[in-house]
Automatic annotation (TrEMBL):
Name the UniProt record assigns to this protein: VOC family protein
Domain VOC: 125-239
InterPro entries reported for this sequence: Glyas_Bleomycin-R_OHBP_Dase, Glyoxalase_6, VOC_core
CDD domains (alphabetical): VOC
Length: 240
């Protein structure tokens, strides 16, 4: 395996404004990103890079990927929710009953995220961004396990999760039924071989695992756009 998860990328009408919301919420610094976007600087080796890239299309429907933020205490959960609202977020209704324990919010461009309850053992030790929560099948969880070479840390009742050997945020797939698609995914994964790596060989490996070609140039002319077995788009960037 010679490809890395470079970033979780978020399409945004106003990338800098959205980055500032998330920087304020997560306590991270906004930095320039290659191309036209901006990013949040990781504050540790196991922390995911999050970047915000310009897109003209408005958000339609519920995203198939969202962040799960963790809470050390009930008071901490309330403080995270209050901070998100103060920064310009809002409560969101995705069909939750209201007794789940987590709080569903949306950022300034309507991207959903959850603030989990204290004592969530599944996300214990995963950091503030406990999970990148994806809508997807068991098969797609297996695909990403092989694609990134990350250990499979959960596989039960068609729900799967992987986690970097370095620790940090989990990437999870919630199993069926899957959400309907609403055009291009506004939140997606960006992969990149390390410096000196063979991108074409890695693309061939991903295709052999079940990915399909979608096109090129999602954000830059050099992006190669693939889709995983569930049809979720992701980009393979030049070696980084």
């Amino acid at each position: 395996m010679t490809i890395d998860l470079f970033a979780i990328s978020v399409d945004a009408r106003e990338p800098l404004r959205l980055a500032r919301f998330w920087a304020g919420l997560l306590g991270r610094e906004v930095v320039d990103d290659p191309g036209e976007g901006v990013a949040l600087r990781p504050d540790g080796d196991a922390v995911l890079r999050i970047r915000f890239l310009p897109a003209d299309t408005p958000k339609v429907g519920q995203n198939r990927i969202h962040f799960d933020l963790t809470s050390a205490s009930s008071q901490g959960q309330r403080e995270t929710v209050a901070r998100a609202i103060e920064l310009g977020g809002r409560h969101a209704d995705v069909g939750q009953r209201g007794d789940e324990g987590h709080v569903v919010l949306a950022d300034g461009e309507g991207n959903e995220f959850c603030v989990t309850e204290a004592g969530n053992n599944f996300l214990a030790g995963c950091g503030f961004v406990g999970a990148v929560n994806c809508d997807g099948s068991q098969a797609v969880g297996y695909f990403w396990h092989e694609a990134l070479g990350w250990p499979l840390v959960w596989d039960q009742d068609e729900e799967t999760a992987i986690q970097s050997p370095r620790g940090g945020s989990k990437i999870t797939w919630s199993g069926p039924p899957l959400l309907p698609r609403h055009g291009r995914d506004r939140i997606h994964l960006d992969l990149a071989p390390p410096a000196g790596g063979d991108r074409e060989a890695e693309i061939d490996r991903l295709l052999a695992l079940g990915a399909t070609r979608v096109g090129v140039g999602r954000h830059t002319a050099d992006d190669v756009v693939l889709a995983d077995p569930d049809g979720n788009e992701f980009c393979v960037l030049t070696p980084r």
